[in-house]
Amino acid sequence: MWFVDHAQITVQAGDGGRGCSAFAQPPYTRFPYPDGGDGGDGGDVIMLADPQAATLLDFHFRHEFRAGRGGHGGSNKRAGKRGEPRLIRVPVGTVIREAVSGNVLRDLAQPHERVVITKGGRGGLGNATATEAGPGAPGETRQLVLELKLIADVGLVGAPNAGKSSLLARISTARPKIGAYPFTTRYPVLGVVNVDLPAAARQQAGGRRTFVACDIPGLIEGAHAGKGLGIQFLRHVERTRLLVHLVDAAAVDGRDPVESLRQVNRELAEYDPELARKPQLVAANKMDLPAAQANLERLAKEAGRPVWPISCSTGQGIPALLQAVWDALHTGHDA
Ligand SMILES: Nc1nc2c(ncn2[C@@H]2O[C@H](COP(=O)(O)OP(=O)(O)OP(=O)(O)O)[C@@H](O)[C@H]2O)c(=O)[nH]1
Ligand SMILES: [Mg+2]
After folding, report:
1. Which of 105, 123, 189, 261 is the most buried (most CB within 10 A)?
2. Could you give the number of structural domains in the chain?
3. C-alpha of residue 257 to centroid of ligand 1, in Å
4. CATH no. for residue 85?
5. Cα 240 to middle of ligand 2, angstroms
């Protein structure tokens, strides 16, 4: 499933430096002559398709990027320094549009492809080259919209009301609808999840620190035969690399969590055996409620491996779950 990550940014190239107006008069000469140097050109703003960038998440926090201005010219024909260029790294596949017109300026489809998106202003000429020293030209400013199509890495599955949307809302900037009734979620929602990683782990992952999760409607008995809503959307999780199976461990709506786990897995297998074989992490949600504790061990027994106790209300256990998701994505094994 494709999901479009958007960001809007302003980029400003550097202004050109001022040309210098100066006169030199060496000893024993009658007339001074002009020797003012040219101003340096302003720096360009360059966008680069970086294979290590995965999402546009960084641009949700930083919107303005500027390149350095050119240095002013000096006497003795000294030229001003060129302004520092500003390099903006974006994921491969980022489409750059002009915000106002919506026109596509560039589609950075190839790794390491780069484009000068705004040019620095030319430096002004000094009076050594021109009759009169001039100011530098202003750097170009542009409002840009960045767009990136993403594919989900992780699918969130579970019975209705398990807390799938609550989890996505907690771990990403996505805002799926949350409600204490089944089928609150009526269509898939994707979110970019930022994982807090130690530097070493990040390096191991090639600099990446985000993954994309997909929240789909809850799965009920008979889902594979079209009951409920979830089935229409299972294809959206078919291409994910990992499933996080959320269970309401506190059985708020009276359904036994172990039975629910079994049920949803059965529906996955009926829909597509491949889906049931996909690496799966089981997360026992609603651990803030006292009733949940007693079901933890039973759930682990049913799953045949440890489950991740979490609470979307308090946030407990979520960093550990994200770490496990991360490890599974980057080692190719489920925990
Ligand atoms: N106490 C408690 N309630 C929770 C927790 N997580 C979710 N809930 C509540 O459970 C209900 C269902 O949450 P949702 O996130 O909408 O569940 P869902 O799995 O997305 O449900 P569907 O979209 O209907 O499949 C809401 O009332 C949430 O507030 C939790 O950790 N503790
Ligand atoms: Mg939901």
Report:
1. 123
2. 2
3. 14
4. 2.70.210.12
5. 18
